[in-house]
């Protein structure tokens, strides 16, 4: 199971990331673009993900991933149940979501290469 604290440790190492509490929801963003957000009860982690790939992700693992509410489906976004994620998978999802919102020259920043034990 993944917690906000787990995500916070990963996101804090990523350049240009800031954390915000908006309407009782923890969100991580670069500038004004949110790339990871939690539900109020922290059971769902939403993250930036290419729209054209999300149906495949959800079909592959429907017990883990699901679509956001209909009004948010216009965005590059998908949701995951935090109880179904492990830390390695979360790290990959968070870093990939961050890469979607930062300039390409930051994609290979050393923080993106951190291992679980660091």
TrEMBL record:
Pfam families: YjbR (PF04237)
InterPro entries: YjbR-like_sf, YjbR/MT2646/Rv2570-like
Protein name: MmcQ/YjbR family DNA-binding protein
Organism encoding this protein: Actinomadura namibiensis
């Amino acid at each position: 199971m993944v917690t906000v604290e787990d995500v916070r440790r990963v996101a804090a190492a990523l350049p240009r990331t800031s954390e915000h509490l908006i309407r009782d929801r923890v969100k991580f963003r670069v500038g004004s673009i949110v790339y990871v957000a939690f539900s109020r009860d922290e059971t769902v982690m939403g993250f930036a993900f290419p729209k054209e790939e999300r149906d495949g992700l959800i079909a592959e693992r429907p017990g883990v991933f699901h679509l956001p509410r209909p009004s948010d489906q216009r965005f590059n976004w998908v949701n995951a149940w935090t109880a179904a994620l492990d830390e390695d998978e979360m790290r990959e999802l968070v870093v990939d979501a961050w890469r979607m919102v930062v300039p390409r020259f930051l994609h290979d920043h050393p923080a993106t290469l951190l291992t679980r034990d660091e």
